[in-house]
Amino acid sequence: MSQWIDACAADEIDREDVMRWDHAGRTFALYHSPDGEFFCTDGLCTHENVHLAGGLVMDYVIECPKHNGQFDYRTGEAMRAPVCVNLRTYPVKVEGGRVLVQVG
Amino acid sequence: MTSRDYSLLGEDGRRAVETGLAAAEWYHTDVPRKTMKELMQRSDAPAIRDTLIYYGAMIALAGIGIWLWPSWWSAPFWLAYGVLYGSASDSRWHECGHGTAFRTPWMNNVVYEIASFMIMRNSATWRWSHARHHTDTYIVGRDPEIAVMRPPVLMKLIGNFFGIFDAWAFFNRLFYNAFIGVHPEEKTFVPQSEWPKVVRVARIYLAIYAATVGLAVWMGSILPLMVIGLPRLYGAWHHVMTGLLQHGALADNVIDHRLNSRTVYMNPISRFIYWNMNYHVEHHMFPMVPYHRLPELHAAIRHDLPAPTPSIWAGYREMWPIWLRQLRGEDVFLKRELPPTARPYREDFHAEALGRPQAAAQ
Q: What pLDDT shows up at residue B2?
């Protein structure tokens, strides 16, 4: 079973926004949804290695800053061309004001 | 002169991939996240307003044109209708293809499909073609949307003000897609899962054109073609005029949009037709910013960009001499000065990636 990794303070990410988080040579995107939940996906778009953290969060969608491809960041589902391949998602929990991610 | 192989299956494309020039990380001006987040916000309202004006004007102009037909008094109405059909459709295709014009996805998709048909671009193919244009802007052998290749073919440039070569290429490819399938070059940027859609769209377009021609034959009049098809020719001039300014006579094979894209100030009517794509450096650097926020983005980053070209006329005055020199075989391009507040151009990477010294700049 993978460990929970302390990623950041919960108040570091605005609601309906995204933040880049690098860990152990990998890059992730952390999301704070409009209703206050946190989510984590791979940090790079599956279309062309662009950091999603530069993109726009609209409700539960992250839009890639380069080609405007969209994913549902809760499930990783690719929603709009040019992205065709889903994003990998990771379990997230918040404890004591900290966002913890299980990056397995 | 360095010979360039613009084929997507050719040597330059292969070398761009090998050297890392393709799919490279491009230069971006630093913009605070809070500012950028604000500028990226989507809204339906501006695009609904503009779309109602746009389609409303088209219906009114075509209606008057039909009413006055075949009198020459109908000509000005057709000319205005033609610009909306054969030029404004280019910017609608573009913005809705990015998905930035409206906040609501289906609105982007509906306008995108209509505009694609009007501008004579297969909606399935060109969505991917434009994604590649943004990945590899003016990278030779990679970008399928290079408007002016070197050396420039002036006859083609001029002919396209009347849509001639574009329409010829479109119908050739339309028949190919409808009856043979996806072209090998298209297969380099359209994912296989989308190939059936390319063929389906081509057949739908072909059916609409066949029905329009059939109606014209039945009526014994070109009137139906004045409404559908021909305006892509007689109204193309504005989108070609503005489109050539986007990258014309600037650098190729670079990874800094300040070197290969141009921002031009222009009149409000052209900006309505063009949906603010005159802010083209800004658009390429930050394609998520909707057209109606580009003036604000321009204000936020202009300290880091070359001075905007002050007018369409000024743009052609700076492009034309360069094209003529390229015609004579000179490997020249226009390199604009950056203001003292800007960070320097990222030229080291281009030269290294190309494995050869930089070409001469004007």
A: 58
Task: Note which residues in 21-40 of chain B have CB less than 8 A from chain A.
Answer: 23, 36-37, 40
B135 touches chain A (CB under 8 A): yes
Strands A38-42 and A26-32: antiparallel
pLDDT, tens digit, 9 for 90 and up, residues B228-282: 999 999 999 999 999 999 999 999 999 999 999 999 999 999 999 999 999 999 9
Assign A60 a pLDDT band (cuts: 50, 70, 90): very high
pLDDT of residue B353: 52
What does the DSSP 8-state code read for residue B85? I
In whole angstroms, what is the distance from residue B129 CA to residue B8 CA?
11
Side-chain-side CA neighbours of residue B343 (13 Å):
9
Q: Tell me: the pLDDT tens digits for B218-230?
A: 999 999 999 999 9
Closest residue to B100, CB basis, from A47, A68, A82: A68
Would you call A40 helix, strand, or coil by DSSP? strand
Is B287–A65 a contact, with Cβ atoms under 8 angstroms apart? yes
For residue B283, give the chain A residue with the closest CA: A66
Residue A21 per-residue DSSP state: E
What Å distances lie between residue B361 and B166, B249, B251, B263, B330, CA to CA?
A: 30, 10, 8, 19, 10
Tell which residue, B122, B126, B132, has the closest CA to residue B170.
B122
State the pLDDT confidence band at B301, using cuts at 50, 70 and 90. Answer: very high
For residue range B274-284, what is the model confidence (pLDDT) as tens digits? Answer: 999 999 999 99
- How many CB atoms lie under 10 A from the CB of residue B30? 8
Q: Chain B closest CA to A56's CA: distance in Å?
A: 7
* ipTM tops 0.85: no
Contact A58 B103 (CB under 8 A): yes
Q: In 3D, which of B308, B268, B320, B326 has the Cα closest to residue B292?
A: B268
Which residue of A49, A58, A66 is in closest CB contact with B287?
A: A66
Rounded distance between C-alpha atoms, residue B28 and residue B288, angstroms? 13
Cβ contact B287–A17 (<8 Å): no
CB B358 within 8 A of CB B333: no
CA diameter of chain A? 39
Domain annotation for chain A: domains and CATH numbers: 4-102 (2.102.10.10)
Contact B37 A17 (CB under 8 A): yes
First to last CA, chain A: 8
A1 within 8 A of A97, measured Cβ to Cβ:
no
